[in-house]
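Discrete fold record:
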Amino acid sequence: MKNVPAETLRHNIKYLDLLSRSFPNVTAAVEEVVNLKAILNLPKGTEHFLTDIHGEAEAFNHVMQNASGAIRRKVSEELSSTVSIDDLEELTTLIYYPKEKLELIKAEKKANITNWYELTIYRLVRVARATASKYTRSKVRKLLPKSFAYIMEELLQEDEHRFNKKDYYSEIIKSLVEYGRADLFIIELSEVIKKCTIDHLHIIGDIFDRGPSPHKVMDTLMAQNSLDIQWGNHDILWMGAAAGCRACVATAIRIALRYSNIDSIEDGYGISLLPLVSFAQHVYKDDPCIRFMPKVNEKKPFDVDAELLAKMHKAISIIQFKIEENIIEQNPSYNMEHRRILRTLNPAAGTIEIEGKTYSLNDTSFPTIDPAHQTALTDEEQYLIDTLTNTFMASEKLKQHVRFLYAKGSMYRRYNDNLLFHACLLLNEDGSFKEKEIDGAVYYGKSLMDKYDQMAREAYFSGQNADFLWFLWCNQDSTLFGKTKMTTFERYFIDDKATHKEPSSPYYKLMERDDGTLAARILKEFGLSGNAHIVNGHTPVKVVKGESPIKAGGKLLVIDGGFSKAYQKTTGIAGYTLTYNSYGMTLISHHPFESVDKVLREGFDIESTKEVIETLVERKRVADTDTGADMKEKIQNLEMLISAYNKGILKQQD
């Protein structure tokens, strides 16, 4: 320990006095320093990266249960030399879904259930001990359930082969079975194994939309011990809806109707769509709304008539288009004048003008559009969207989830030499950072991301300028959108597919051909070294067309591989996950998930393929991480405190 000069100690006396309240004497401070220095030499925990979940709760939950295949590998490493393949499969599935698997097993093994319990608990303890081995006893203790904390700690810390405690170890397991606590113990120990396998979780955006159960995904995320979230454009859409942005409300409902997933709104968040049902049945009763028929959900039949969904779909879409054009008119700084296309709508002629060119419409039924005031909401439309917006804002479940997104989320995150953001940075065609003027100040790169983050928080918590969250959803200068325009109207009403194109921002083209130079410059802008990585989602990687998720000379990893079923035909896979442990980084691609029932009854798991991105020459330890940097700073402060005690500058307490 360095001898800290008395002058330095006196300069920091107020802070040291506060620190002394937690460490009142030299012994307490030294004990903490010894503990922290020991932790610095442990292997770093495993980070798990996922993105673009899009409401696919069942597939997402399974990836969380199997930790992208890490649990299967750990079970195999620990037990394959002594356990049959069938028993390994059974144990692995038991860890994934302990409650459900136990019911099946008990029905099959009634005669030998006692022996099965004892052997299974013994095997689970071995797996749990292996997964917990790189953590301190204190950290593991915090992961243990209160109901079995003492018993689990004894089993995890003891060696069952140690002669003096062999009978002690065996008796614990026998007693758990004898007193009918085996089921609960197995369930709780399985959860401990999963918690130890993933130390920290990164969600790189787009939890919401397309899939049926984003609310269930959010519930799962809220139960995690350690995670961060980088907002995606689909997340910001729902954040905007919760903040009271009417355009975001209309868009969220439209997307749910398009993918026939209104259960997430009605059952998930308790938001009634009955006002929309009544409006659509009345106003669009004579309109078949063919272009608005929802996409077929093969696993879930329509709960309501498909034609009614189509009428609701068209009704909310027209409301959305009107509101959006009014937002554009009221916010000239958004530079979206070219998207005010309803002004040129001519239902009588069946045409519309877009960017100077006239197109024919495939649908000319617009009962709520006044040819003289195309963007004006009717009184009924105004009442409907106000009612729906108030219901979104009043949903306690949505409020809980959105506040969690703000608490754990951000526009970007730097974490252990990786830069995480959902979509893109604003770049010019030459690769320079694009500047954006906001309220008289100029921002770019990191400063722009920070400014957007600040404005997104103010939009929700101040109750003002909620429309800025809509800007982040679809503006050409949004780092969450990554395109020059959103052609929703064209995709519904114009057959000419040339109008459907949504050109990507320069970032994508530049990073596709980058040799690592631009990526290194971006990393430097965010205070990271050239050895770091950028991790993105947002853009599905078309594996079937030979596209690679590894770009920019290995510095950029795009891990959106298609969790969303709507994209799996395009991508050819069902999502990527990235893991980063003490040995390096591994990219895992997943084939489509079938069902939990198939996992339970047939041992069917998601088929995954590993690709090692980077192998570390020296195993990475806690000392090499952001957490380690914080610990080193704490050690320095504690050493100052110890010096202050030793020099008599601060008085020790008993």
User: Anything to note?
Assistant: The longest strand covers residues 608-615. The CA atoms of residues 123 and 522 lie 47 Å apart. The mean pLDDT is 89.
